[in-house]
Specification:
2 domains; mainly alpha; two-stranded parallel sheet; 6 helices
Length: about 130
């Protein structure tokens, strides 16, 4: 599963991936605007500003910058010490109640009963079951 692969990635990779995913989902709303990233991850602020010497992080940074450039989005990044970010830090560790998926055993049973499915309405980027 994709979620298992993402667990093995660095914390900074996961935060950059989050920035990219949010950016791609909101790009129409952000076009021609100014975006300020506030984070308690100093690596994230550095990478967004100047890139990274780690290839996969640098590629993600370039992808983020491409989206900004193509949509005329200006941005800046700001580091906020963790002790000044307690509420957001707490909320980021809460259990996700909107992460629905069909149980693997149930899905396999339904595949046997009704043949392979091409659509899973509970599907997301990390729990997809359809080929």
């Amino acid at each position: 599963m994709v979620a298992d692969l993402e667990k093995d990635k660095s914390f900074t990779w996961r935060e950059l991936e989050t920035v990219l995913r949010v950016l791609l989902r909101t790009v129409n709303d952000l076009a021609k605007k100014y975006v300020l990233f506030i984070t308690d991850n100093t690596n994230l602020t550095y990478i967004l500003y100047s890139g990274s010497n780690i290839n996969n992080l640098h590629e993600m940074c370039l992808g983020i910058r491409d989206v900004f450039n193509q949509n005329n989005i200006s941005f800046d990044e700001q580091w906020l010490p963790r002790d000044m970010n307690e509420k957001a830090d707490y909320l980021s560790r809460c259990f996700a109640v909107d992460n629905w998926c069909v149980n693997d055993e149930v899905f396999t049973h339904l595949e046997r009963v009704w043949c392979p499915h091409s659509v899973n309405r509970f599907d997301s980027h990390f729990n997809n079951k359809c080929v």
